[in-house]
């Protein structure tokens, strides 16, 4: 949890610094640089967090005796860096969402799973269908937050050459992408459940989050062209991410406590 929080904070700070440099965040009130009033202070703090985070990344997997985890977490950090930082800045080429999906989905979620066992047990934890399925769902939900955070920034992004997916698509088609992504999230969940990649408890509990998912879709559809109202879209996506992730985790826990409810035998826990 601490490492995940660190990575989020560090990534946002670096993102705000380099968007400030290009002028993309001139009118972004919630930018860390604008809030602190210091570009240098934010940059120094971000790199200090990066250094401390690497120490944590090295210590936790070594302590657990699992090098696969540190490789996955290392991939997450590197992907996060090339997402925004020079000379790469792949977010300016429309690759922000795919990178976000990989960082917080397959890389980070799978790595955190590998760190859950004891020093002896964790080495033998396999990459199972439930873990990989859950990581894909978390990746999709996280990438949706990033996608929706750009609706109110399209004009500023285009002006500085930041060709995000929304700049390329426009708000109307972007709202359609949001709808398809949300539908895809639940279709994947249902499919994983039917194929026994995830327990049936996950289908049931994740299904309870459909109201907030419908709210996200309807809100974006109605307000995609209003840059003042659409600002709230990313916060609705954060709510969806939190509720969906909690429901997914709860479904896995409940199915382990009550195996007859449909936990796949390949889950990987003894």
TrEMBL record:
GO BP annotations of the record are: phylloquinone biosynthetic process
Question: Which residue windows are coiled coil?
Answer: none
- Protein's name according to its UniProt entry: 1,4-dihydroxy-2-naphthoate polyprenyltransferase
Q: What Pfam families does this protein's entry cite?
A: UbiA
Q: Name one GO molecular function term.
A: prenyltransferase activity
Q: Which domain of life is it from?
A: Eukaryota
Where does the signal sequence lie?
A: none
Keyword list (alphabetical) reads:
Membrane, Transferase, Transmembrane, Transmembrane helix
Residues that span the membrane, as ranges: 41-60, 66-83, 95-115, 127-152, 173-192, 198-217, 238-258
Taxonomy of the source species: Eukaryota, Viridiplantae, Streptophyta, Embryophyta, Tracheophyta
Q: What is its main location?
A: membrane
């Amino acid at each position: 949890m601490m490492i995940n929080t660190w990575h989020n904070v560090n990534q946002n700070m670096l993102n705000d610094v380099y968007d400030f440099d290009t002028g993309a965040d001139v009118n972004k009130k919630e930018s860390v640089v604008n809030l602190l009033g210091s570009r240098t202070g934010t940059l120094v703090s971000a790199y200090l967090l990066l250094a401390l985070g690497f120490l944590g990344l090295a210590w936790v997997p070594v302590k657990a005796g699992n090098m696969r985890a540190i490789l996955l977490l290392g991939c997450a950090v590197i992907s996060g860096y090339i997402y925004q930082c020079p000379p790469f800045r792949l977010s300016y080429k429309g690759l922000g969402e795919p990178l976000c999906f990989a960082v917080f989905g397959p890389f980070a979620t799978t790595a955190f799973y590998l760190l859950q066992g004891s020093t002896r047990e964790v080495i033998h934890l396999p990459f199972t269908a439930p873990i990989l399925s859950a990581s894909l769902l978390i990746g999709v939900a996280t990438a949706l937050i990033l996608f929706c955070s750009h609706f109110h920034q399209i004009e500023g992004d285009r002006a500085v050459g930041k060709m995000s997916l929304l700049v390329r698509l426009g708000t109307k088609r972007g709202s359609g992408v949001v709808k398809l992504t949300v539908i895809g999230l639940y279709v994947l969940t249902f499919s994983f459940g039917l194929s026994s990649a995830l327990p049936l408890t996950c289908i049931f509990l994740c299904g309870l989050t459909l109201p907030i998912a419908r709210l996200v879709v309807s809100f974006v559809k109605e307000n995609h062209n209003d840059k003042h109202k659409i600002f709230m879209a990313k916060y609705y996506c954060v709510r969806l991410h939190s509720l969906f992730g909690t429901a997914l985790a709860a479904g896995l826990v409940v199915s382990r406590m009550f195996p007859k409810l449909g936990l796949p035998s390949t889950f990987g826990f003894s």
